[in-house]
Amino acid sequence: MIQAVIFDMDGLLVDSEPFWRKAEIKAFSEVGISLTENDCRETMGYRLNEVVELWHNRHPWKGTSRADVESRILSLVSQYILAEAEPLPGVHHAIDFCRNAGLKTAIASSSPMMLIERVVEKFQLQDHFNLLHSAQFEKFGKPHPDVFINTAIKLGVKPEACMVIEDSFHGMVAGLAAKMKTVVVPAADDYNHKKWGAASLVAKRLSEFDKSWLR
């Protein structure tokens, strides 16, 4: 029986992926790397330090530290989110459904904690989650399951009694590896892709959340 629901953040609660792509393209251009939006999509679900490390390994740059590039990207994303972000359709419905059903709720994201807190504050969701957890505190990021397993531990719930809701392939793999029921709510243009075949359920939007998801 499901006792807790763990939400991803980027691409699920907030359409932040365009902001991340915009920030990465700008920040990497400043160190001489020209990325496309498809290049950025390759690293969806990765932690920020893993994204910067990947592109540094492929195209080493000089003069600017990787930590400075990370800070630049995070600063840009924060600016874009504060100025433009809105919750995706169904966010409040899904969270309220969980609370009314007596389920524990958490956000477990690859984003740094500072950004998670920024989004929660902007959407006025401070009192809606039992826990916020970032993969920045884990040895490995998604698709490794640690971020979900340790979220369950902090919630006091066994992994198999948790449901993960994700939008990315790496997130889906992490949820399944954690032995949790894993629901995927992908981008509309990615909904019919065969890569979601391993998911417990594939939904078009969070507004479809109902008791059938918990079975």
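^ that was protein a. below is b, sequence first then the tokens
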Amino acid sequence: MTDKLDPSSTLVVVTGVCAMVVVVQQAAWRLARGVVTIVHEGGHAVAALMSGRRLTGIRLHSDTSGVTLSIGKPTGPGMVATVAAGYVSPSLVGLAGVGLLAMDQVTVMLWAGTALLLGMLLMIRNLYGALSLLVTGAALVAISLYASAELQAAFGYGIVWFLLLGGVRPVGELYVTRRRLPGRRTDADQLARITHLPATMWVLLFALTTLGALAAGGWLLLT
């Protein structure tokens, strides 16, 4: 006979299942993927600033693509870190969120996300991108200020599950895109030109990182 799940365990499982449905179901994924794009481009931006590059602009598009522009050396560790940060950022941010949840810091997680969105808003260079950041930021502020502790917890678990799971799918899409459209410019191809390492190796590295974060985050959440 199995033990009955306590409410917190039930919450973790239910939010995880809901996040999985959103990531797997195509229509839901099209609506929610913009959040992953925001974190993806935010990862490029943070890595650029941390490596000493000058950030010049961020654009988010309605097809859930995005671009982050920075000025600095076209090669070297800083450029590699900037380009490589995008695909792994959603998963790593999700894993960091798991750590905050473990310390019962849901509100800190929400405000940290809001601060990141405000920073990106200063660098956004198109109207759709600005609207996306404002809507997402308003949702975070509303939940942190007006939602009950239970609703905040449900949202917190839901968003970290979504980032952990949603960080994996774009890497699979990247693999498929490169096979179908080999001439298309991607982060992996840009890294291949900079480092002279095969683009396939970078796709594999993205996959290992996102799957590793999902495994670690899922284990921490469920145990």
